[in-house]
């Protein structure tokens, strides 16, 4: 199957600082590709390149086999690549349905908002993804962290995302709320969307991931399908393995 999006030997330099070195990544429809790494691993730089915020210094980006360059976030969105950032793009005091259509409101004659239609669509889209809200008129700020993430993800899917990039969606959530978001990631995958799940949590990644990429100081140190790695191996790779063993011996003296 041709990848929806593929990165080949992508590198990024900021002046003399090498942020990424020769990164390869493929995202296919109906798969979750997990990109793991600690702080400073290069995950944020990778997101910016995929989202069209920054251009790579070298390498190729291919969309369904054809070379492409994103010169702006709009280019990425037009290509069906939507990014849901950790801080989200929601207005807390606005209602759920207003946030769902924020910047893409449905209007009728003389620019009048089609409020009833937007409410109905919001309710339907959330329900189809397994999320039942008491009322889409409530402010987004009144929702739990997991629910806010779900609204942002559902919005991206509704507006045509074929590739969904999720920036640490479970980082600030508890167990129950993280579970809600992970179920939603699985639901997006089952709809045939290619998902890039950026995380530093190998346990969350392994619950939904089909392929795993591990970054460390801008370099790709692991690129393996689910069948090729166990959760324990992924956790050891993520945590530094030998460094932790050395520290354990040192602290137990």
TrEMBL record:
Keyword Nucleotide-binding carried by entry: yes
The answer, when asked if Nucleotide-binding is one of the entry's keywords, is: yes
Q: A Gene Ontology molecular-function term?
A: ATP binding
InterPro entries documented for this protein: AAA+_ATPase (IPR003593), ABC_carbohydrate_import_ATPase (IPR050107), ABC_transporter-like_ATP-bd (IPR003439), ABC_transporter-like_CS (IPR017871), P-loop_NTPase (IPR027417)
Q: What keywords tag this UniProt record? A: ATP-binding, Nucleotide-binding
Domain spans labelled ABC transporter: 5-242
From the Swiss-Prot or TrEMBL record, give the protein name: ABC transporter domain-containing protein
Q: Native species of this protein? A: Corynebacterium callunae DSM 20147
